[in-house]
User: Which sequence fits this backbone?
């Protein structure tokens, strides 16, 4: 609001009555190697966290943000050229083409294989499509997991 009023040259009428909040001067930080390995290790502990595990591996191997992972579609991936294209990002600098590491490529193949089990995989479908995991239990022991409410057109 302050910036808008300053641009309109009206801020001076309110400036004496308002004490602005401090704006943080720092931005996020990269994970330390121990934090990365702990993240991957924790995400791999339970079968129902499989999607989180794969998303973490993909993020760590591609520098993708969470919002970029959610928007990722199969049309953004070139398996032959081993490239991934970020078409929309938080900033203009975020729109980029990312070469895929071996691990990132493996994750994408696994995700595509899982998606193919649910039905045809089309280019407009989301890589991290919407589904709800439903566990099958015997008391407290998990016997298996199945997916329901799968919708590849919704992230």
Assistant:
């Amino acid at each position: 609001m302050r910036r808008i009023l300053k641009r309109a040259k009206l801020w001076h009428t309110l400036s004496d009555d308002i004490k602005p909040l401090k704006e943080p001067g720092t931005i996020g930080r990269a994970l330390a190697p121990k934090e990365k390995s702990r993240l991957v290790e924790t995400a791999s502990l339970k079968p129902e966290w499989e999607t989180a595990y794969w998303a973490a591996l993909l993020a760590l191997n591609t520098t993708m943000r969470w919002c970029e992972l959610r928007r990722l579609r199969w049309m953004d991936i070139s398996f032959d050229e081993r490239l991934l294209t970020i078409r929309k990002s938080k900033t203009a600098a975020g729109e980029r083409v990312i070469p895929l590491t071996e691990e990132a490529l493996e994750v994408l193949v696994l995700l595509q294989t899982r998606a193919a089990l649910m039905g045809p995989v089309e280019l407009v479908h989301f890589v991290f499509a919407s589904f709800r995991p439903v566990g099958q239990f015997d008391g407290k022991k998990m016997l298996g997991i199945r997916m329901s409410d799968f919708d590849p057109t919704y992230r």
In short: The chain has five helices and five strands. The longest helix spans residues 102-118. The beta strands are 77-78, 83-86, 96-99, 130-138, 141-151.
